[in-house]
Every structure is written in C-alpha cells, then in structure tokens.
Write a structure and sequence with these properties.
Radius of gyration: 22 Å
Strand order of the largest sheet: 1-12-11-10-9-2-3-4
Organism: Salix suchowensis
Number of domains: 2
Structural class: alpha/beta
Shape: globular
Number of helices: 15
Strand content: 5-15%
CATH class of the largest domain: Alpha Beta
CATH topology of the largest domain: Rossmann fold
CATH superfamily of the largest domain: CofD-like domains
Protein name: Maternal effect embryo arrest 18
Helix content: 25-40%
Length: about 475
C-alpha cells in the first residue's frame, strides 16, 4: 500500500557585559582576476512530455544557438546537493541557493552553544562549493576556509592558535589583503570566545570557515553582511545567491512531531543523533536507531522550549520570496527531507508563491532511504512536501489546501534507486512527468545522481517549458 494514500504508517524497527573594542574594519581588497563565465550548454527545446522515461545518455548538443542562462531556486541542505554544484555551473550561475539555519551538529553546535546566533554550517559549505578555483590564490583561500581542525581537543586548540596567529602553513599562497581580512575576523571570533570565561569552547573538528563566518556575523550584527563578505572573499559569481531562509541573528531550534505524538527537539537529534557526544556527523549510511514512528511535521520552537506549546513562527527572508516569484525553475533537492528541505518550506509565504507559479517545480528524489524517510515511496515524499507547504498540521489559521501538483510537477529519479516509484499514486496526485536519470554508487551514501546526467536533464526540462511559453506568447 502506498504510504501517501492513507494515514500514518509505522516504521519497522529494523530501519535504521561590555564588549571589547572591535578591530578596525578591514580593507576588503579582492585581487582575484576575472575569468570568463562558463558558456552553458544550449537547451534542447523539443523534448516531449515524459512519463517514467529516461534521461538522455549523451550530453546536450552544442550545435544550437546559445540561450540566456535560466534562473533556478534550490531548496537544499548543505551536503547532498553540494555534489552537483560544480556541474550546475555549466548550465547556469543564476542560482538562488536557499538554506536552513537550524543545524545544531558538529562544530556549528559548539559555536551556537557558546556564542548563540543562527547556524552557519550549511551556508559556509555551499559558499565554499561555489567559490572560485581558477588560480592558486583562490585555491589557497578555499583550502584555508574549508579546513577542519583535528579531532583531539588539545591538537585542535594548538593548530587553531597557529592559524589565528598567522603562523600556520595554510596561510602560504594567501596574499596580504586576503590574509589580513580573513585573520581579522578569526581574531574577532577568538576575542568573542575569550569574553565568555564561563564557557569552555571545544575546537575539536572545528571548521575554520565556520569560525570566520561567525566572527563576521557577530562583528556586523548581520547574517546577510557575513554572507556578503564570505561571498566576496571566496569570489562567488555575483549572480549566484546563497540565501538563509530566515535572516536572523537569533538562535533557531528545529523540532518535529511524530505520528505517535512524540516531540523531538533539535535538527541533529531528528536526523543523526549522537547522544550528546562531540563527534563528526556521519551523514551517509549509518546504524542510527529508527524513529518510533514517522515524522508528521517539522516546526520551529523557542530555544528553551521542549514541546509544541513552545512553537514559534519566524518570518521568511524577503529575498527568498522575491527570488521565488521570478525564477525559471524551482528545485527541491535530494538530501534529508525533513531537516534539510522542509525547514524552508514550512514558513508562511513559501507555499503561497510556489503554488502560484507556472514553471518547472522539480523534486530530486533520494536514491536511498534514511532515518527520516524509512519505508517511504516516491508519493510519500510528495505528500510530505505538500503537507509542509500547506502547513497542514500547524497553525489552523494559516493552513493552505493546495494540491500536490501545484507544488511539484516533475520528479527526477536516480536509476537503480531504492525508493519505490508508485506510479498510480503519483498519477492520483497529478504528477505525470517522472524522469529516470543515470546514477552512480557512492560507497558512503549509496545510489546518487550522476551529476552530469542530472544537469543535462534539468536543462532539457527547463528548455521544454521555456519553448512552450515562447510559443504561447
């Protein structure tokens, strides 16, 4: 029986004071040379409507005249979609990456615990993936900001002091304007830690990029300003946007309600519980215990709250709504459904705009099950996204009643994936465009999309819609 058609199915147990003086604002000098933007593959405009069909095995023909780059908005977390970011640049750099700010695992959790504020790990991760790699200095900056400290706390602290004092070999290849800019915010981050003598900060497995990001956010008192600075330091294309779904300086806590009434507090506790231990998060196939029942909904709660009575309703970032209203294609990325994608969808205003758009609205289906979606079929993913966008189980005064195909009109499926494709249920949801895409087998996470095939398929899909709209006009 398809899991989207009836009530809440169960999960098999076998499933897995006074501030210090601020340092003077650094001069932001960006010496990276400008390089020509990659020419996107021309879009195929004659692709017929597909029903459980296969993506083209060959790359998109370069014989057609070049078209303007399409614009995309991608709802994702910081890990799964990163693997296709490089290939996506070959299609377009006009992408708005919408990311949650509720992660509370790894070094992000330690920053939030001691310094407060929103989680920046997913944003930092995407910024690094989008960063320039065209010359030696760009690579040196990327290597520095992408570095993680050792697991051993003493070794980590020792290496951190070498880096913050400018003595580590990681500074080799980074010019003076860059090193002074980056180091200024690392020093500011260190000063903020020292101001809190009652909180012992653990540097184990800490991300230098996260520390830089946190220092910039606290200095500017603005998450958007920190993203702007990081984007310029890592030389992200101006038309590529990294947008927090909520623009805030406050700590955000994600909660979920299970169908059996259980409330789980914290994103990491929902998806990859570590029993309170400070350790790297394994986001691949793991032996984490199964949830006692399926997830009914996700919601935001106050930092001190422990149940649904402490639910809060943060405002969505206005820039996200603006992008949603204008892009050529909306993508729900693969990854952790309830902790990476749904935290962006549950906010008021998101469902209203998506349902009103006439454009490709594409779900990239996972290739394997995880703790959050054990036992799901394809229609189960669609139902969960629909219920989240409709805010079905939230505030009754803000619920929507839109149909699934007003939010999703195309499903891209990795070949040989483990998620059952229940065509009849998808058809009953009004989804007829199901496209099979070539896949790869990753030893850590299992079946994933072949990046090139995925982007080729997206290009064809967007081209088909653009061609149809041109003919209508």
């Amino acid at each position: 029986m398809a899991d989207s058609c009836l009530g809440p199915p169960s999960i098999s147990k076998a499933s897995p004071p006074s501030p210090l003086l601020r340092p003077p604002p650094p001069q932001l000098l960006f010496p990276f040379p400008s390089f020509p933007k990659p020419i996107p593959r021309p879009l195929v405009l004659s692709m017929a409507s597909l029903h459980c069909s296969s993506s083209p095995s060959s790359s998109i023909s370069n014989s057609s005249p070049r078209l303007s780059q399409p614009s995309l908005l991608v709802f994702s977390g910081g890990t799964a979609f990163n693997g296709v970011v490089e290939e996506l640049k070959q299609l377009t750099t006009r992408v708005a990456h919408v990311l949650p700010v509720s992660d509370d695992g790894g070094s992000t959790a330690e920053i939030v615990r001691v310094l407060g504020g929103p989680a920046v790990g997913d944003i930092r991760s995407r910024c690094l993936r989008l960063s320039d790699q065209s010359n030696a200095e760009a690579l040196a900056v990327r290597r520095l900001l992408g570095h993680r400290l050792p697991l051993d706390p003493k070794d980590a602290k020792s290496q951190w002091y070498d880096i913050v004092e400018g003595e580590h070999s990681f500074w080799k290849g980074v010019s003076k304007p860059y090193s002074e800019t980056i180091r200024a915010f690392l020093v500011y981050f260190q000063n903020e830690i020292l101001r809190r003598p009652n909180e012992s900060f653990c540097f184990s497995n800490g991300s230098i990029g996260n520390f830089f990001f946190a220092g910039a956010r606290i200095f500017f008192q603005s998450l958007d300003a920190a993203i702007f600075l990081f984007s310029r330091v890592s030389d992200i294309p101006a038309e590529s946007l990294v947008l927090p779904v909520i623009s805030t300086n406050d700590r955000l806590t994600l909660g979920c309600e299970l169908w059996d009434g259980t409330i789980i507090r914290g994103q990491n506790e929902i998806s990859h519980p570590t029993n309170g231990f400070m350790q790297p998060i394994d986001k691949g196939c793991s032996s984490v215990p199964a949830l006692p029942s399926r997830i009914k909904r996700v919601f935001y709660m106050s930092s001190e709250g422990g149940n649904s009575l402490h639910e809060v309703f943060p405002m969505v970032n206005a820039s996200v709504l603006d992008q949603l209203s204008n892009v050529d294609c909306i993508v729900y990325a693969m990854g952790s459904l309830f902790t990476s994608v749904c935290p962006s969808l549950v906010l008021r205003g998101i469902g209203e705009i998506i349902s009103s758009r006439n454009c490709p609205k594409v779900l990239l289906l996972n290739g394997t099950h995880d703790r959050e979606t054990s036992g799901f079929s394809a229609s189960g993913f669609v139902t969960s996204i629909t219920d989240t966008l409709n805010r079905k189980y939230g505030d009754p005064d803000s619920c929507l009643e839109n149909l699934p195909n007003q939010y999703i009109n195309t499903l891209l499926v990795p070949k040989d994936g483990q998620i059952p494709i229940d065509v009849q249920c998808l058809t009953s949801q009004g989804i007829f465009d199901v496209i099979m895409v070539e896949s790869l087998c990753d030893p850590k996470v299992g079946v994933i999309f072949n990046p090139k095939s995925l982007i080729d398929t997206l290009a064809n899909l967007i081209g088909r819609y653009m061609s149809t709209n041109v003919m209508k006009d």
